[in-house]
Amino acid sequence: MMNEKNKDNNESREKLIGCAKKEFLEKGFAKASLRKIAADAGMTTGAVYFFFKDKDGLLGGVISEALDSLMKLLDKHFAEDTESDLSVYQQQDGDHDEFAEELVNVIYDNFDEMTILLDRSAGSKYGGIVEQIIAKLDYTYITMAERYAAVMPGKHANKVMLHWLTHVQVDAFIHMMNHFTDRQEAMRFIKPVMDYLIKGWITYALEDDT
Q: Facing residues of 157 across strands?
């Protein structure tokens, strides 16, 4: 009996998530109706509160796995980059193709969830996710630049330029999502963009001590 109840609860929870995803995609978090989501799932709003506690919790149920996959990939990549010896690094086009492919796959495997997260989560606790990602990139890039500067006499990290490059990188992926629904077209777009951004980073990450 307990297994049947757990199965029913899992099915009800997944049905609510499916209906919520559709509603959040169509209306965004702020205008989405819990009453409509519950009705579409054949339940009452009480079921939403039972499974998710509140509207933020329901949004979390929709996007948490996609967000976790994205953050794990970013953390893995940045951990590898932070360990790189930039004093001997010679940039070549295609150096970051594997990372670009992994990132595109995470985004396009979870395209609806990523769309909600990046474009329709205003008013929720996830509404500042773009700024959080930018802050993560900023910290990583400044750390890398400071390590780079330590072996480059007369140079220091150009924090203003690094912050701008961080925004450009994040905006490039948002632009990709807005303009390419096909995964392969997205990859063809983003790979040279990554090469361009890396060249910019190597050229402008440091500035003279003057």
A: 206
CA distance 109 to 128: 22
Given a contact cutoff of 8 angstroms between Cβ atoms, the answer to whether 102 and 10 are in contact is no
For the chain, where are the alpha helices, taking DSSP H only?
2-31, 34-40, 45-52, 55-82, 97-109, 111-119, 129-149, 159-179, 183-204
Token pair of 192 as six digits = 């040279």
Q: Which CATH number does the domain 1-53 belong to among 3.30.420.40, 3.10.180.10, 1.10.287.3510, 1.10.10.60?
A: 1.10.10.60
Q: Are 191 and 100 in contact (CB under 8 A)?
A: yes
Indicate the domain borders of the chain: 1-53, 63-208
- Show pLDDT as tens, one digit a residue, over the chain (210 residues): 546 555 667 899 999 999 999 999 999 999 999 999 999 999 999 999 999 999 999 999 999 999 999 999 999 888 876 676 666 667 788 888 999 999 999 999 999 999 999 999 999 999 999 999 999 999 999 998 998 898 889 999 999 999 999 999 999 999 999 999 999 999 999 999 999 999 999 899 999 998
Give 126's contacts (C-beta < 8 A, 6+ positions apart). 29, 56, 59, 60, 63, 67, 117
Q: At 207, is the secondary structure helix, strand, or coil? A: strand
**Token pair for 120:** 């329709």
* Backbone Cα Rg of the chain: 21
